[in-house]
């Protein structure tokens, strides 16, 4: 009896985490099985094989932010007015925390502290490509400049997802307006998921999300922070 163990494909892949496209077997051997103890021998052989090829797991933080230090903000990466952070969140501090906690990588979501200026996060992604991937922030301004920006962030800068914050849409407009439809459609065409951050509760925006998903079913959707659902107390 020949037993062949193939290297499994990962369910989730992150930049910097190795892919395993190899189709040749990691292990191939033959076991002669007697009729009397056939099943027991087969199980033992498989157990022995699987125990010998354990692959260490990677620990990935799926949602965090970085922003410029005060010195970086004064020099190259200014904060958006009114969104100056009160806490330390520069990349060196993040790397220190990751090392202490044995975290291998992370998805960095564009912080509100820099709003639609992605230059700081992009610089971090470029400097540490084996550790981080990025989620950009959709710009829903009525002039449509966010469409070109999204295309560039995905295709040129390598962001892997985009966040929709309904409270950044123009006053009295919904995520299902013309710009929102175009942004959501583009995300699907570019193959990146859309994460919705409904800070005041998912029920306030679920109809918009359903409408977008119905019109553009190829776009994958994430619900940030578990939809900000508030369980009964």
UniProtKB/TrEMBL annotation:
Residue ranges of domain Amidohydrolase-related in the record: 60-229
Taxonomy, superkingdom: Eukaryota
InterPro entries hit by this protein: ACMSD, Amidohydro-rel, Metal_Hydrolase
Pfam family, one: Amidohydro_2
Transmembrane segments: none
Keywords: Decarboxylase, Hydrolase, Lyase
Molecular functions (GO terms): carboxy-lyase activity; hydrolase activity
PANTHER family given in the database record: 2-AMINO-3-CARBOXYLMUCONATE-6-SEMIALDEHYDE DECARBOXYLASE, CATALYTIC_ HYDROLASE
Protein name: 4-sulfomuconolactone hydrolase
Organism: Rhizophora mucronata (Asiatic mangrove)
Organism lineage string: Eukaryota, Viridiplantae, Streptophyta, Embryophyta, Tracheophyta
């Amino acid at each position: 009896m020949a037993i062949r163990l193939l290297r499994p494909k990962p369910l989730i892949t992150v930049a910097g985490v190795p892919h395993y496209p190899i189709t040749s077997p990691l292990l191939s051997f033959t076991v002669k099985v007697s009729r009397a103890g056939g099943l027991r021998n087969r199980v033992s052989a498989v157990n022995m094989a699987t125990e010998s090829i354990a692959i260490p797991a990677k620990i990935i933080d799926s949602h965090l932010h970085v922003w410029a230090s005060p010195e970086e903000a004064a020099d190259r990466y200014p904060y958006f007015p009114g969104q100056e952070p009160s806490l330390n969140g520069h990349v060196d501090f993040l790397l220190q925390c990751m090392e202490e906690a044995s975290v291998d990588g992370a998805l960095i979501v564009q912080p509100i502290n820099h709003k639609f200026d992605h230059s700081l996060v992009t610089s971090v992604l470029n400097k540490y490509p084996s550790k981080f991937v990025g989620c950009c922030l959709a710009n829903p301004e009525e002039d449509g400049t966010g469409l070109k920006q999204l295309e560039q962030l995905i295709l040129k800068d390598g962001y892997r997802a985009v966040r929709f914050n309904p409270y950044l849409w123009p006053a009295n407009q919904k995520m299902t307006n013309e710009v929102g439809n175009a942004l959501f459609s583009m995300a699907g065409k570019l193959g990146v998921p859309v994460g919705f951050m409904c800070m005041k509760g998912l029920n306030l925006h679920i109809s918009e999300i359903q409408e977008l998903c119905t019109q553009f079913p190829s776009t994958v959707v994430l619900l940030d922070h578990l939809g900000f659902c508030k369980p009964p107390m």
